[in-house]
């Protein structure tokens, strides 16, 4: 009774140490295999914000967040290993209103159709990544009247193609765009 258990703190330390060395923990309910594909399967009650930072993953695959019906905001940042976001990665997340993708400098590919059927999406921000063209936003089908697309510090994007927003239905889009001279330009279409 009341016997001291010195092993316990040591055990806790040993369990926590690898996590400290690897960086931030992979949040529930996700799996974040090093150099592998992220997976955050739902449903998950009361999960409205998902913050994915300092993760060792390489790919955000199709249906990565499948079933996370309540999620409102997804933030992905500070991950140098991330290289690719596949088509349908963000698909059918009916409550999702904000996506932030920031400081992922090796993220070079965002496949067309990565953002699909996101009726509540209001704000998509892609900053300081390695992408070479504007992401395809024509399949978002947001019913939000003012949809904001923020594109900043993506040094490899130099121009906005004329047809970038062709096929968007009825949502109006405000593009916040930072050019080479660091000026923030604001475009509104249509
Ligand atoms: C979800 O949140 C509500 C309200 O905050 C709470 O009553 C409920 O127990 C939570 N459900 C779960 C599964 O955590
Ligand atoms: C959106 O989230 C609420 C809870 O915050 C949930 O009751 C509702 O079912 C979700 N909507 C959809 C379409 O899943
Ligand atoms: C946009 O168009 C779809 C059909 O294409 C319609 O269901 C939706 O209500 C429209 N949204 C707005 C904001 O007008």
Automatic annotation (TrEMBL):
Q: Which residues cross the membrane?
A: none
Does the keyword section mention Acetylation?
Answer: no
What SUPFAM superfamilies does the database record attribute to this sequence?
A: L domain-like (SSF52058)
Signal sequence span is 1-23
Spell out the molecular function terms from Gene Ontology. luteinizing hormone receptor activity
Keyword Lipoprotein in the entry? The reply is no
What GO cellular component entries does it have? extracellular matrix; extracellular space; membrane
Q: What are the UniProt keywords, alphabetically?
A: Leucine-rich repeat, Signal
Q: Which InterPro entries match?
A: Dev_Immune_Receptor, LRR_5, LRR_dom_sf, LSH_rcpt
Write down the superkingdom of origin.
Answer: Eukaryota
Name of this chain's protein: Luteinizing hormone/choriogonadotropin receptor
Q: Which organism is it from?
A: Equus asinus
